């Protein structure tokens, strides 16, 4: 669906921030982008959004060349949720915030009303239409940013560190929403430092280091290789630690630990 081939980019035309990155993202995947701070994760998502254009390499979306696309082109297909929702929200009401992008894209009034309603329903914000975005809690602001991205019915949703600064309840709600959208067919690109989220939710992980693609595979493949994981500045997920401690092999989630423990107990009866 989204193909990036030999992508090179530098901000100053000298130091490469993305160095020959080739990534293929398939429809319906949740793809996590991980790596140390400064490794190029945000730059890569900005390139995908057309905010900056590559120095060389090419990009395709559904077979169409998007190498020279601009944000207005990509906004029809990709919703982008910034790490800090305060940087994204600007309207004086929740309704106007969510209606902005569909309006820009030329939706009719009827279509705008319907897509705002659907996006607010999906994110649990119905009833807050006339509230000021600035007065919402951090968690609700984040969900509003997601609702705004959803309003254009994107094929791909990019979430940049969506759980940073969120309390436990909001984190759970966000992850549940992400799974729901994914189950409904949306492709998700998730920039995150949270290895537990990657282990539990991602189908694929891309790890960058100093602009180089250092790993591209499944969470199981990554976390089965502790040496590689640590060398890339990442931690093993908690479930992997616990699984190892109890000699259960590689477990990616608490549920897997429980299942394997149960199987082992049965085997001993
Ligand atoms: P990450 O998201 O992994 O933390 P970034 O993509 O933000 O990494 O940054 C990658 C590199 O590009 C870093 O060395 C950073 O200092 C540099 N960089 C990011 N944004 C800019 C910018 N606007 N101008 C110049 N350099 C930048």
Descriptive report:
By secondary structure, this protein is of the alpha/beta class. The protein folds into three domains: 1-77 and 154-235, P-loop containing nucleotide triphosphate hydrolases (Rossmann fold), CATH 3.40.50.300; 88-153, no CATH class; 237-269. The chain is built from eleven helices and ten strands. Strands 6-7-8-3-9-10 form a six-stranded mixed sheet, sandwiched between helices. Strands 2-1-4-5 form a four-stranded antiparallel sheet, covered by helices on one side. The longest helix is centred in the middle third of the chain and has 16 residues, at 168-183. Bound molecules: adenosine-5'-diphosphate. The site of adenosine-5'-diphosphate has 10 residues, from helix 1.
